[in-house]
UniProtKB/TrEMBL annotation:
A GO term from the CC aspect: cytosol
Family: Belongs to the NAD-dependent glycerol-3-phosphate dehydrogenase family.
Keyword Oxidoreductase set for record: yes
Residue numbers annotated as active site: K225 (proton acceptor)
Protein name as annotated: Glycerol-3-phosphate dehydrogenase [NAD(+)]
Domain spans labelled Glycerol-3-phosphate dehydrogenase NAD-dependent C-terminal: 214-362
Organism: Canna indica (Indian-shot)
Organism placement in taxonomy: Eukaryota, Viridiplantae, Streptophyta, Embryophyta, Tracheophyta
Keyword terms, alphabetized: NAD, Oxidoreductase
EC number(s) on file: 1.1.1.8
UniProt: substrate binding residues: K140, R289, N290
Length: 380
């Protein structure tokens, strides 16, 4: 039997060493992955004394075809009927369409929204969260500023003044939702105890979590692999076969590593062998939404835009690979690095229909006097 609230408070006082109540968790986001994250978390908050049972999940309110509000439907059925239909989230998950209300009691915030919305959400939260709140980002993307890339975890830290870890991995949400075995990697900056608490919150027998002291490495792996997945989908759409796809994945991993280490000297080589690295790259190139939409784009000969295909195929979910390819290209072009990263460059040019899908295996012809950096060299 799960402990009562009073029992949990007493046990939490001993466990967390602060003599206070259990940690309260809010999930900021309620799409496919956000709903699965809430399910994982809710299964642990009920059992573990350091966490308050209730998990708030902020819902960007939508009206369903039957006229009902999405948040009401989630609370009545205990399912996200639009983004994760058929999966029970846990009776302790409460959908809340009011962002400020959803976070007001929380001291652990889980951010899991499309990356282009994070700045706007954080702006609304300034001055509205509790002191000493910790955050974790499950968001795969970046913002590009004049001075260079700004990772989403840093954006959250800078705007809200709170520490932010990251969680990335080979995590196709629908598979985790039905409790198929998966792994993930937490990246933390300094406080290992905080990282271990996040691991405790997420870890289940079917979802294993490890922690590494490399926020930028973990986050860049989760971000850049979506660009490589676009390339893999293009290969699938043109029926080029497994040899070609494997080559694109290998070259993509090499460019991921090289760009990450050029942008942040602290990035560790070992991070690329964690779940957030090679495992996430493989699963996304085999079964993720970026691969799927890119395949459709190639089968249409590039005649239909990614925006149109996203709207048709993803039913409200957002495609991250195309926007990330654009952001990566902005970094490369600003620093004159396009020739050093021909796969990344070519993916963007295909996405904006400057090149045909077939160019994904022709980009080597564009290399002239490429600068050799660690892990990157001309391919012929």
């Amino acid at each position: 039997m799960a402990p009562s609230i009073e029992e949990k408070a007493e046990m939490a006082s001993a466990c967390n060493g602060i003599g206070g109540p259990p940690y309260r968790v809010t999930v900021v986001g309620s799409g496919n992955w956000g709903s699965v994250a809430a399910k994982l978390i809710a299964s642990n908050t009920v059992k573990l004394p350091v966490f308050h049972d209730e998990v708030r999940m902020w819902v960007f309110e939508e009206t369903l075809p039957n006229g009902e509000k999405l948040s009401k439907a989630i609370n009545q059925t205990n399912e996200n009927v639009k983004y994760l239909s058929g999966i029970k989230l846990g009776k302790n998950v409460i959908a809340d369409p009011d962002l400020e209300n959803a976070v007001k009691e929380a001291n652990m915030l889980v951010f899991v929204t499309p990356h282009q919305f994070v700045a706007g959400i954080c702006k609304r939260l300034v001055g509205k969260i509790k002191p000493n709140t910790e955050a974790i980002s499950l968001i795969k993307g970046m913002e590009v500023k004049t001075e260079g890339p700004c990772m989403i975890s840093k954006l959250i830290t800078d705007m809200l003044g709170i520490n932010c870890c990251v969680l990335m991995g080979a995590n196709i949400a629908n598979e985790i939702a039905v409790e198929k075995f998966s792994e993930a990697t937490i990246g933390y900056r300094q406080d290992k105890e905080v990282a271990q608490r996040w691991a405790q919150l997420f870890c289940t027998p079917y979802f294993l979590v490890s922690a590494v002291q490399d926020v930028e490495g973990v986050e860049l792996c989760g971000t850049l692999k979506n660009v490589v997945a676009i390339a893999a989908g293009l290969v699938d759409g043109m029926d080029m076969g497994n040899n070609t796809k494997a080559a694109v994945m290998r070259i993509g991993l090499r460019e991921m590593r090289a760009l990450s280490k050029l942008l942040f000297s602290s990035v560790k080589d070992s991070t690329f062998f964690e779940s957030c690295g090679v495992a996430d790259l493989i699963t996304t190139c085999l079964g993720g939404r970026n691969r799927r939409v890119a395949e459709a784009f190639a089968r249409n000969g590039g005649k239909r835009s990614f925006d149109d295909l996203e709207a048709e195929l993803l039913q409200g979910q957002k495609l991250q690979g195309v926007s990330t390819a654009k952001e990566v290209y902005e970094i490369l072009s600003h620093r004159g690095w396009q020739s050093m990263f021909p796969l990344f460059t070519t993916v963007h040019e295909i996405c904006i229909r400057q090149l045909p899908p077939s160019a994904i295996v022709e980009y080597k012809e564009q290399i002239t006097n490429a600068t050799v950096v660690e892990g990157v060299a001309p391919y012929c």
